[in-house]
Each structure stands twice: as structure tokens, then as C-alpha cells.
UniProtKB/TrEMBL annotation:
Biological classification of the source: Bacteria, Pseudomonadati, Pseudomonadota, Alphaproteobacteria, Hyphomicrobiales
Catalysed reactions listed for this entry: an L-alpha-D-Hep-(1->5)-[alpha-Kdo-(2->4)]-alpha-Kdo-(2->6)-lipid A + ADP-L-glycero-beta-D-manno-heptose = an L-alpha-D-Hep-(1->3)-L-alpha-D-Hep-(1->5)-[alpha-Kdo-(2->4)]-alpha-Kdo-(2->6)-lipid A + ADP + H(+)
Keyword terms: Glycosyltransferase, Transferase
UniProt-recorded Gene Ontology molecular function terms: ADP-heptose-lipopolysaccharide heptosyltransferase activity
Protein name: lipopolysaccharide heptosyltransferase II
Keyword Glycosyltransferase included in the entry's annotation: yes
Amino acid sequence: MKRLIIGPAWVGDMVMAQALARRLRRLDRAGSVHMMAPAATFPLIAHMPEIDRGWLLDIAHGRLHLHKRWQLAGSLRSERFDEAIILPRSFKSALVPFLAGIPRRVGMIGEMRYGLINVALPAASANRRTVDEFVRFAGASDLAEDERPRLRAGHEATASIARLDLHNDRKLVVLCPGAEYGPAKRWPAYHFAGLAGLLAQRGIASIIVGGAKERALGQEITAGLEPGLVHDLTGQTTLAEVIGLLARADVVVSNDSGLMHIAAALDRPLIALFGSSSPERTPPLSPHAHILSTDISCRPCFKRDCPLGHTDCLVKLDVARVAAAVLDRLA
């Protein structure tokens, strides 16, 4: 069977979607799996060996652009797909498979898209992990351990590493201070600065990574630190280069974010920091991940911004505790 997966727009969800592709490959080794994704997550497809071909949905997030969707659907018609699996629950995400005439279009019940999908799964449960909801599309009730996401690293980070003069014999910690969802998932920048300073005192290099939106965070973290062992690359790398840097890391420290899921899928030693969200819902899927959080009564609230205005769930996750976890994994 020839299948097209419509991938998510969030990096973390896109990583978890690889588990579905791995499951489909196991069920139908002679079949073919393609994936379509927007620009924000499309580069991940190149790191998923289970995907035969990627299709770029070159439309800004939230925009309809019906003409562009019609053009893309026209390109897909000649592929003669048997099935489309539509992971996002929006109306727009179901349009291209419908316009392409793909006969079986599977998706969760969502934004008034009856007819656009013709095989409807019940809406996702708030009590189940996102990855388990994804593998439901392949008939599995839960994720099998040997089907968890496993990204393949490339060599895109070579130039960035060379530019920073990072020696292979020096320990490297990669810091991921961003979280696209909102501030209630971000460990404070001054805590990241404290951690980077402690590591630098021990001769351990750290790199700060993130997109253009994290530039202010990177600058805040490095503002009071001596240059040399702390390198801010926020907004200066492609997603593919960040994947390469994460693959090079001896330890990754990350908020609950897309980069956390990438690090987990690369099997890097990972310190995952949880604030308003819960590892019961979106855990890092790796035996090498160590989750840190506080036990204050108001978490998890799943809010973008702290409704109480203090973000104590992350403020009270102190630097010494995180540093101890990092140093333990570097030992």
C-alpha cells in the first residue's frame, strides 16, 4: 500500500510522528510511506529513513491559500496514493488529500471536516501520550519500545563545530532554552546562565541553540558570562545543523520542546525540564532521558503563561539540581 502521512506543524509532534512511520513499515514492508509537512518541520523528514519521499507544504501556518493547496494536490494525484493519514486535526490539513483524490483518508474527528476525511478515529484522549495517539492510525494501542522515534543524524553541523573550534576530546553540553508553546514551559534564562557558568568553571563547553525567536534568550544567558566556553548559536543555524549539534552533545539540557524530542530521538543523554506541561503526556522517548520538575501543587496546568504570574514550577527548579544531573552524566 502507498501511504501519505500529513505531518504536524510542531517539531516535537513531528518527531513523534516517526513512530507511526516505523509502525507502518513493520506492518507493510513492501509498501511505501511519503510524508507532507510545512516548512517548520519539513527538514526532519530527511532524518527519518522510513520515509520514501517528503512533500513540502509551502504555506504559512494558519493560512488557507486554497490555490496553492490545489496545485500541490495536482502533483500528488499522479502518485496514486491508496491512503492518507492526517495527523493534525484542522480543517485545512485535510484539504490536500481530499483534493488529490486519495481514496482512503484517515483522521481524528476535528474542525468540521466530515467528507474531507472518510475514516474517522475518535478524538485524542487527554489522558494518553501523544505518540500513542499517533500509532493508533496503524492499529496499535500503544507504542512498542522498538518503534520509538530514532532520527538519523547527518553531517550538517560540521561547519558550525569547526567555526567554534570545538575539540573532539572536550565535553560538550547543548542548552535548549526555548519552548515555542510559551513562557510557562521555559526554565528561566538566568538559571541557564548559572548552569553555563558552572560548567565553564569546570572547563566544559556549552552551546546555546534555538531559532530566531530564541535570540533574546541566548543573549540574556551569555550577557554576564566570560566568552570562550559558552557559545550562543541561537538564530544562526538551520534545523538540520541543530540536529547535528545535538548528535554531537555529551549531554543536552532542554525544556519540554521540539529540541527535547529531537535529542531523545538521537539517543543523547538528556536532562528534560518540565514546568507547566507533563511527562505523562509528552515524555522524551528515550532510556537516556532524565526528567526534572518541581512538585508544587499547581503543576501541571498546561498553560502557555503562568496563570498565577510566578512560574514557580520552573523558578524553583534550582541550578544546583540541574547541574548535579548534568555532571553525573558527564562523569
